[in-house]
Structure formats: structure tokens, C-alpha cells
Amino acid sequence: MKGQEWYQADDVAEEYDDKRFSQGGQLIDRREKRAVLEAIEPLEDRRVLEIACGTGRFTTMIADRGADVVGLDISAAMLQQGREKARAAGVSDRLEFLRGDAGRLPFPDDHFDTVIAMRFFHLADDPEAFLSEMRRVSSDQIVFDTFNRYSARSVYNWALPMGSRLYSKSEVSVLLAKTDLTLVDVEDDFIVPYGLYRSIPNVLASSIRSVDRVIGRSTVGDHLASVSYWDTRVR
Asked: Which end of the chain offers a freer environment for a tag, N or C, measured as fewer CB atoms within 10 Å?
């Protein structure tokens, strides 16, 4: 997986949330959380695994809504941030953080109802293998996001620290077919790429986001969106 050493650095973990989800990045955080909740609720007593859970943005939220959650990440520093976040939210009893490799999940077949992976597949060197492993441990649902090849993100992708894997809709469709997953829904969003939102104040980001939504609802919106949220079911 791309960027393993970078993500495991202590200083990256300490600054991760502030750099990505402060200022205009708060808009991204809210949208991603809404996409996840719309796909996986209701959550009461469901068993959920999050791949590449990082600092626990989603795991803490999901546990707070009644699920039993496991967050898995390769970074010990990120996991420590997640544990502190879970304690502060009072959900440590419903949430376990494990260090592990997403390519070799330490769980039996069909162990979870739902498996999610946000901000993960753009770093995957072998997306089919990772998705197959997620499919193995899920009895019902897999939710993930991708950055889109034909979008504004492709313009600056080369400048990112480890780059990103960008996907076309047809490529993801092939991945789903190969891993025996059925598409339930896909939502496309953010004509303006994430990087711009993160770098500007909330007031300005909110104005740009309003225009972004209008374009996104137009006939060209699906073709220009930089992000897609995929909700799939196990066949």
C-alpha cells in the first residue's frame, strides 16, 4: 500500500485531523460521515469493521450509534489517537482498535455485518485483493469511497506526497463483479477537489461548496465529481 511509512509517523498522526478536517475541511468531514451513515444505518447491535480507521473519525461515530466496532490500521500512532478519541466520547466499551494489515485480515469468514473503508482505496496497490479480503470477512455489506479519474483531482494528483490511485466507474464495476459484490447505490460529490477546501477558511469554503452542489446536481455533475461513495452487498 502506498504511503505506509508516511502514515505511521508520530508527527503525521498528531496533526492528521487538524490538517485535513479544520477550516474548510470540516465540510468534507461532515459529508463523508453523512455518506457512511446513510449507507449503514440502522446500527444497533451490528458488527462493523473499519479498514484503515486512522484516528477513529468513523469508528467512534458508529460505536456511539450502538454498533460493536473494530477499527484496524497499520499505524500505531493513529490507533492511539483513536483510543483517546473513543475514551473522550465514552464508547470504549463498544470499540476495539487493532493494528493489522488490510491485506490479511485477522478475522474468520463472515465475521462482520458491515465493512467500511474510507480514504483507503486511493492508496491500494492491489484493490482487487483488498476488496476480496473485505468481502471474505463481511456477511452483508461493504462501503468504500474512491477518487475519480476524470475529475479535477487528476490535475494535481502528481503533486501529492504519495499520489493517489484514481478510478473510473467502469473500473470499479469490474472490481465489484470480480469480488462477487452487488452495487446498491453510488453517490458522486465534490466537483472542487478536497485539497482546495482544506486550504481555505470555512466561510469561503461554504460559498464554494454552494456552487459545487449546484453543479453536482446538473447533468454533468456525475462526470465531473472527484469522489464516489459506493454501497455494496455480498451476493
From this structure: C
